[in-house]
Design goal:
The protein has 242 residues and is mostly helical. It is built from ten helices and no strands. The N and C termini lie far apart (73 Å). This is Yip1 domain-containing protein.
């Protein structure tokens, strides 16, 4: 009589590595750390994996859109430390806010606080979409990829842009350091574009630098347009919320 093998255990072995503790606490595990490391050290390798093997790079990397949103969440945390978007709301002309505040029945401070909360909640996903909408057509045009891979490459580029600026912390938002911080932030985009896209979306250095500046300008415009719905959602949320 042939012995029947015992079924393998369905319980995963307990792991105790640093990456596993991080995954348990903040949702960043070995895959995310590997993605961040390779985007910093060899971004073109990550892009090639995404283009050849799909949105997980053959199960090696985090999905670019989700990873980008997670990185932006860290940047949003910095913003919370400095008071969120309250400063931007307070800088609006009085005639822009007074009608909303009157209809809400709230104090000016209470209304602005609620609007800030809503804006901080929706800014990351909305601006991510506007960044992608501005960048993806250029990436597709220059690389001649199909739309699906162009969008994947766009978010891979934005991840490669964001990873090195996370260590800057809230520097671009601190008074007195805005110019230095923003130059470093947008300079990181140019560097990521050049490191990731040689031979794919740029061929010569002159062309690469020119295209990187055009891309940065398009994404700045996308951010400007994207702030319109973010701002209005904040006002509407503060009006309707109790």
């Amino acid at each position: 009589m042939t012995a029947v093998p015992e079924p393998a255990s369905t319980v995963a072995p307990e792991r105790s590595g640093l990456a596993d503790y991080a995954e348990e606490t903040i949702g960043f595990g070995a895959t995310e750390f590997r993605t961040a490391r390779d985007l910093l050290l060899c971004p073109r390798t990550v892009l090639d994996a995404y283009l050849a093997y799909g949105p997980t790079g053959g199960r090696r990397y985090a999905r670019p859109f989700g990873f980008y949103v997670a990185l932006c969440g860290i940047l949003m945390f910095y913003m919370f430390l400095l008071g969120g978007m309250k400063g931007m709301i307070e800088q609006q002309p009085a005639e822009t806010l007074n009608g909303w505040i009157a209809r809400s029945g709230k104090s000016r401070e209470g209304f602005i606080g609620d609007a800030d909360g809503w804006m901080s909640l929706v800014a990351v996903p909305i601006l991510s979409l506007f960044y992608a909408a501005a960048a993806a057509p250029l990436i597709k045009w220059w690389s001649r990829l199909d739309w699906r891979r162009s969008i994947r490459a766009t978010f891979a580029l934005m991840c490669a842009w964001t990873v090195p600026i996370v260590p800057l912390g809230p520097l671009p938002m601190i008074k007195g350091f805005e110019i230095i911080g923003n130059l470093a932030m947008w300079g990181a985009l140019i560097v990521a574009f050049l490191r990731m896209g040689r031979g794919l979306w740029w061929q010569s250095w002159a062309g690469g630098i020119g295209k990187s500046l055009l891309l940065a300008g398009a994404m700045l415009l996308g951010a400007f347009v994207g702030m319109i719905p973010v701002f209005n959602i904040g006002l509407l949320g503060a009006l309707l919320g109790r």
